[in-house]
Amino acid sequence: MAVGLDQADKIASVVGASVALIALIVTLRSARRQPPAHPSPHLGHPDGGPPRARGRGTTPMALIVGLAVAVFCAASSWAVIHAAMRFVDDGDGGISAGKPTSPSTSSSGTPSSAGPADAPVLWKGEIRLDSTPRDFDQEPPARGNTSTDLNSDGYLNGSVYNKFWGRAVVLWSGPAEPTRDGCAARLQTHGVQQVSIDSRSRVCLETNRGRIVFITVLRRDGDDGYAAQATLWSSS
């Protein structure tokens, strides 16, 4: 039953007015039927006949009582009908003002929620890239040995940076420094075994244990190496 509160007000007003009118009519009729007061002895006929009855009429008190009853009936009818219509209009038996509010949403209309935080940095600092392999699974990255070390991940050969026991390397071409996930995604889709670098290159590397490394080449350092800054993230 879809009845709005505006319709409930109209229905309540009509019913209340009708009830008030009926109550007023009943009160007036009851007042008019009241027996006349006993006449005084000197109000009889001049010829000694029976006294003349007074004309029937309503008293002010009866009118006041009738109006009070009418107003009370109208107010009661309006309140009952209005409450019933609000109950039906809500549909779930509750009052609209008492319903719980929905969760707050963002300006786009969807519930607001914080995005996932970037992975914590395990270590960040300056290193030298040269022909000696580096183990980026340690903080700071340890220098390895080309003949016996099975843990080092990458090394420099001239101007080419090669993965050693690491899983892949790739140049980073984005305008800003990547997040861990950015580097990992780039390695997943474009990872190779070696990349050519210069004093402006930026490299993503994945270690043999799954760590993600971002290397920013800072400048040339002698004839056989580069100064660089390395950022190490965890494997997950």
Mean pLDDT: 73
Strand order of the largest sheet: 1-10-9-8-6
How would you spell out the order of helices and strands? HHEEEEEEHEEEE
- The value of Rg in angstroms is 48 Å
- The total count of helices amounts to 3
- Measured as a percent range, the helix fraction is 25-40%
> Distance between termini?
57 Å
Give the biggest sheet. 5 strands, antiparallel
- The rough form would be described as rod-shaped
Task: Classify the beta-strand content into a percent band.
Answer: 15-25%
Give a brief rundown of this model.
The protein is α+β, with helices and mostly antiparallel strands and 236 residues long. 30% of the residues lie in helices and 21% in strands.
